[in-house]
Amino acid sequence: MNILIIGGGGREHAIARNVYNSPNHPNVFCAPGNAGTATLGANVDTKANDIAGLVEFAKRKDIELTIVGPEQPLADGIVDAFTEAGLRIFGPTRKAARLEADKAYAKQLMTEARIPTATSRTFTRVDHAREYLATRDEAQVVKAAGLAAGKGVVVCDDPADALLAAERMLVDGEFGDAGRAIIVEEKLLGQEISIHAITDGSAVHILESSQDHKRALDNDQGPNTGGMGAYSPFTPNLRGKSVADFYTRVENEILLPTLDTLRRHDIEYKGVIYLGLMVTAGGPQVLEYNCRFGDPETQVLFARLKTDFVDIAEACIDGRLDEITIEYDPRPAVCVVMASGGYPGAFEINKPISGIAEAEADDNVVVYHAGTTMHGDRLVTSGGRVLGVTALGTDIATATRGAYDAVGRINFDGAHFRTDIARSAL
User: Fold this and answer.
1) What are the pLDDT digits (tens) for 373-410?
2) 164-181 burial, b if ≥16 CB within 10 A, otherwise e?
């Protein structure tokens, strides 16, 4: 069986590792992949957004299943293109992926479906945003409406800072086309949780919970990043209510109404639907939708996933998800992202990396590659987030110690990482 994985980050390395270990013994191809995926199969010198090139490759190599990692090719219609070419592919269509690609659209859909979310307004003109913010005296969140690689969100405790953020997006073009429209919404108070679900268009299966750490620095300081670490499972403070009741609410009040409303618009959603939720005193409220697995949440989820993801993906495509039982390693997992110095701002690449073999000498540790490549026989950095150092443990404390012990064995010039991943769980 030939399987193609689209993308080149830590998320895709985690998926590729599960696929590589499938009982089906597939041949794994990754486009474009990284130094980690190259140890599992063949990297393909085709960018993730080169849809025509990927279709041609899939036909030429008789690819039987394609799994899409990043959001941009999904938003660009890669699933539509592969399906039209008669190729099997896991992920939502362009129309379904608009849930992530257009936050203004997502807010409209939430209003129609009566899904709990923050009160918000959408702006394309800075003068209108200025007038609105002049009436606010509470904390606001300003979001680029388009895709901004997880960095297009600014949390502002002072509404004056929200105006500056709006000006940077609408006037200065801080996030390019992604910020041509912005969302301004009230800041919700509570605990944030990442909920990933798999759907075949009708059946829904909620995966194990996780919590991401978005800010660059300890204690949730510094700018937003694509994610500096994660842990799984994460159980929020439910104020005496049961975990089962919480997930029932998420399914009945958010996931199913979302899918039902999409169907009313003749949109069938298949693939991953990822909810960024704030657990407030009144219950879960939606911060955002994503149409793919999170990164670095995938690293902790797939470190624990025991079920063959090939079977899960194929069941989704065929509309038989209810036939699949998804099993996990009961042990918690913690992932610490090692990033290039300066990330998420300017950073240098081509820094030699050492110590990964020593880190992975512990059977409970796996080092997922993200921004890595090979220069000859030397492993070097090639991106902002470089490695996702992930450990399993008997409890969160043990997994955290394992991850940081492994981080201590790895070296590259300028390496930066947070020292408080999973601390809130302890």
Assistant:
1) 999 999 999 999 999 999 999 999 999 999 999 999 99
2) ebbebbbeeebbeebbeb
